[in-house]
């Protein structure tokens, strides 16, 4: 009887059917390598939730097999869950210089000082168990981004990470298409490719387009300029600073994550700033408004971000005026459209001029559009394909693109989080699942809040609550005081006194019946009160 060949397992635990929370497991026999470890932000249904991180129970059950976590770049959707994961898994982490600098900031916030961080750079190769991993330079909206050529016992798997093809990037941040072609020529078993922008035709605009827009805006603005963008978009920050220096303006950094990123990128040489350009926010009043540029967080309308607090006149140091110009240099993440629109409306109510992507080239994507994706498919020439990084519609469109390029549909796997795609040297199949899902972070609680608690929060947000307060004697079990009715979010008390008085009488009748039946235990009393109110 022939022995079944050993198989490579590729298991996405996050990043499929969603935007963010990217994490993928590569497993062969007794070796596991994890690619990226990101978080996502809550949607409108996740009331009170701060962050969403991946369920890593599969990794916890196989901890002894894990050889390391390899990072493609430093965005939160690829590194943000690391502090939570490294509290449970003591494994080494590999990433480029800036990526690890940003990771270090996150770990310090969580007081994790013993993480095993290993710096690599483009063209390096590392050996983790049976996996030989080569780092390939790519272009993205943050420096030091890499793709991965993962050489396994059954063949090479190429993971693009997040990327775009930018021929005029900032700071010579070119994508190494020669290396892509070289790897493709040697033969690639499977390709995992970024699907975020697959619905957009043509090519993604170069980051330099934004720089030219900034220069034009900086020349025309009569007063202060406030730019909101992602804190980790170092290239965008560089272009804003370059435009400020061109017109002799001073730059203020606002928002904790923005300050951390700027300090890290400057210290490492990824952000070039002339002496005296960046000033403290407390020194802002020493300069006229037309010489001030504020770089801030809040491009997604986050409730506690600096831009949102400015819009609602709650910022301690910045009071916006009609002479200020606000640039929102980002597109809303799916689900954030309402919150971004709300902030824009509040800014316009103040009288500020608001410039956003719909009206000017103040943002370009860091992800490849259809023609760039076609180029990568042609260079890599994989036998099998797994679209990643996107909602289901993105994965489906990317699969259709691969078919247009001649790939057989049976060689394309549209997977879900938890899917197990197995490969031998000449075959691929998807027919298993492992545990996956969301772990919700609510303040200091990690995983404390589940679907039932979220359901209750939703009910409370929609229906409010009524509390019945009854004081009873411990010995005889008789009512000493009450019942009193407290309402929150149900009805306006002053206009509904008759309704609440009726509810009070219902409770009194229920308690009277319990007394007649000599029911004195607390659980039965509660049940009787609840059923009486519910019935009426």
Could you please describe the fold and organization of this structure?
The chain is α/β, with parallel strands linked by helices and 536 residues long. The chain has three domains: 8-202 and 365-436, Ribonuclease Z/Hydroxyacylglutathione hydrolase-like (Metallo-beta-lactamase, Chain A, 4-Layer Sandwich), CATH 3.60.15.10; 208-356, Metallo-hydrolase/oxidoreductase (Rossmann fold); 464-535, no CATH class. It has 15 helices and 24 strands. Strand 1 and strand 2 (23-28) form a beta hairpin. The longest helix is centred in the last third of the chain and has 20 residues, at 497-516. The radius of gyration is 28 Å and the shape is globular. The termini are far apart.
List the helices and strands and how they pair.
Elements: E1 8-14, E2 23-28, E3 31-35, E4 51-54, H1 57-61, E5 66-70, H2 76-79, H3 82-86, E6 93-95, H4 97-109, E7 117-119, E8 125-128, E9 131-137, E10 146-152, E11 155-159, H5 177-186, E12 188-194, H6 208-220, E13 225-228, H7 234-246, E14 250-254, H8 256-267, E15 292-296, H9 306-311, E16 325-328, H10 337-350, E17 353-356, H11 370-380, E18 382-388, H12 392-404, E19 419-423, E20 428-433, E21 438-442, E22 445-446, H13 451-463, E23 465-472, E24 479-488, H14 497-516, H15 522-535
Parallel strand pairs: 3-5, 5-6, 6-7, 11-12, 12-18, 13-15, 13-16, 14-15, 16-17
Antiparallel strand pairs: 1-2, 1-19, 2-3, 4-21, 8-9, 9-10, 10-11, 19-20, 21-22, 23-24
Helix pairs in contact: 4-8, 5-11, 6-7, 14-15
